[in-house]
Amino acid sequence: MHRVRVKSRRLPRTGNTTCSSSKHLHSSARRNEEAIIMNRYSRIITQPKDQGASQAMLYATDGISKDSDFNKAMVGVGSVWYEGNPCNRHLLGLGRHIKESIASTPPSGAKDSTGMIAYQFGTVGVSDGISMGTWGMSYSLQSRDLIADQVETAAGGHHLDGMVVVPGCDKNMPGVLMALGRLNRPSVMVYGGTIRPGSCSGPSPLPATDSPQELDKDRKTIDIVSAFQSYGKYLQDGKTPEAEKERYETVRYACPGPGACGGMYTANTMASNAEALGMSLPGSSSFPAESPEKIQECKDVGPVMRTLLEKNILPRDIMTREAFENAMVLTMILGGSTNAVLHLIAIAHSVGIELSIDDIQRVSDRTPFIADIKPSGKYVMEDVYRIGGIPKILHFLLKSNLIDGNTLTVTGRTLGENVDRWVHKYGELDFDKQDVIRPLDQPIKETGHIRFVFPSERLY
Question: In CA terms, which of 71, 230, 256, 270 is 20 to 30 Å from 12?
Fold first, then answer.
């Protein structure tokens, strides 16, 4: 049976279309001569006299303290918070920093610019690491769609003007991005961050932010996969007291604190994809959960959201066909989770872009695999942070003509401009000082790691 290759195309949709360029031209954005409308949706309930009940209830919230507050933009801060999972336990705290940043950001000074009000809310989530090997995994994938529905419902039902979403675990990232694509309102994603690697001798500290980021090539780390494998190792070693001690210490110290599983598993893969898509701030995907940079990222959100609202920059202006191509390339370069296949296709569908497994195979066929990161390699996401983060890798890919730097991002600048600023501050990827990422002429594999297998003839 011959497969029919369907050319990818943008699906028809209502609302704003998108066309990004190095000059940031996109159809939904406000032109200079147009009035700023920051409360584009909330004014439906805050302005008309016949919405008195809406206004009465809003007076009872933290955001409204005086009548003029009804002119402000209302921004939702949706955290996938859950105390019983390291990936999500700290997200409510990150959300509080974001809420404070939004509420304290003053008008820009431009005519019709207003302040903002932030309202936090939560969504459900399922930990794959906890539920793996049990019937609890039957709830995992559906949690992605529940998260998407909950974020969309909270924003749509309460006429929120913009959204900041704070995901942490595997299905969280695609879930929130699907919601933002459907809503198509000014939005930012703040990743909860990766966990520190564990060690049977205890976790190593994060590097000081005022010192050069250095890679310790000799440190031996453990992570959640070490815990998955610990019982098999215990059996292999004959169930001896020494084997039990190793098994226990592996389980006890594999997860030393908050943050998503540390290898290039689904969470870090999809967070990296979100950054390549342009939906998160530079460095978001590689800042560890406990790092000062992660807190600073949250504090930086307010001015970013103000710009998105003032300029009416929307997710469908950012998540374009070219942006998805960038995300697919990054997935292959990093040896990212195969779950990226179903998640990228679903996110693309939410913004009206048809993405197929043929597209992903095409990118895999031409993209080398160069990242020595777990589960297939040696290093973890904290090591990516130590060598300068995902922006350095994106800059390297841009210099190598593997990605498009003209795609728009939540900063209001292009991806190329973002990574240029990053390397101007932190320097370019140095292959003499690190081996997390290899040069293109010394790949781990000359093509991508993802392969689709099709039957050569009908099976029915």
Answer: 270
CA dist 196 and 294 (Å) reads 13
In what helix (H) or strand (E) does residue 41 lie, and over which residues does it extend? none
> Within a domain: residue 1?
no
Please give the structure tokens belonging to residue 381.
Answer: 């996401």
d(CA 362, CA 365): 5
- Give the Cα separation of 186 and 134 in Å (integer): 39
Nearest to 58 by CA among 50, 48, 46: 46
* Single-letter amino acid code for the residue at 276: A
Q: How many CB atoms lie within 10 A of CB 377?
A: 18
Contacts for 35 with CB less than 8 Å, ≥ 6 apart: 111, 112
* Owning domain of residue 215: 197-256
Whole-angstrom distance between the N-terminal and C-terminal Cα of the chain?
A: 11
| Residue 355 placed within a domain | yes
What are 150's two structure tokens?
């909950």
Number of domains in the chain: 2
324 and 384 inside one domain: yes
Does the pLDDT of residue 216 top 80, yes or no? no
Same-domain pairing of 355 and 284: yes
Report pLDDT digits (tens) over 261-306. Answer: 999 999 999 999 999 999 999 999 999 999 999 999 999 999 999 9
Same domain, 379 and 311: yes
Q: What is the pLDDT of residues 296-306, one digit of tens each?
A: 999 999 999 99
- Whether residue 36 is contained in a domain is answered as no
Same domain as 220, residue 162: no
Q: How confident is residue 352, by pLDDT bands cut at 50, 70 and 90?
A: very high
More confident residue, 28 or 165: 165
Say if 373 falls within a structural domain. yes
Same domain, 166 and 201: no
- The pLDDT score that the predictor gives to residue 174 is 98
Query: Nearest 5 degrees, angle CA 24-CA 27-CA 32?
Result: 65
Residue with tokens 């961050």: 193
Q: What is the mean pLDDT of the chain?
A: 91
